[in-house]
Amino acid sequence: MEVDAHATAKEKKVPNRKSGKTSATEPPATWSKVVGRKARKRANAGAPDKEAKQDFPPLPARPSSRKLPPFRSSALIVKVPTGSSYEETVKCIRSSGINPDEFGATVKGFRRTRARDVAVELGKGQKSRAAAEPLKNALAEKLPGVVASVTNSGSLVDMEVIDLEPTSTVEEVLAAVKSALLTAGKNDPLITAAVHCVSVTSMWGLKNGQQVAKVSVPRAARPTEVGRIRIGWTSCRFPI
Hints:
Structural class: alpha+beta
């Protein structure tokens, strides 16, 4: 059976109404439903949020930014006996037969104090600070009549009580600081013993009517654990 070539060409060509030209046969059109923006937002809002349901590990606790200043050094203060001199006292200490290495102490040198006594400066390490007291006792045994004492630079920390009321007194501030340190220490015997050495060294007024008190606190009392102290009606700040 013969096929009309002219008819076949008509079936393969589709007229283009705009240009008037013919084009190749187009496939049947596929239809899709048009969804507006608001409908898409409502659909997305109802969908479960996978990222929100993820369990993330808890963040680590941030370390406290309140730190005490570092220790400086310890020293033995040996009083020069009456009728003796600084040089003779140093000579007696060196000839006493005491070896600081046996106590774990490092001697940085000798110097004369303002009171013209002998200061035996020790190292900044923990061993030297711990050896200061035994070394003092050994000097007292080897050198009868010699008076020696230990000074620890940095064992006391200067704190401030800010925002004080104009009617606050030194006694009121001292009692409040001791009470706050004892409460934070939770009846720790070391803190209880150290709190007895707390003292208010100075107190002055400001132009705005408030007062500031400087308080000397031993390190063993852990003053950085107290951030505010209630004195009168005011919750006063307690910075280093």
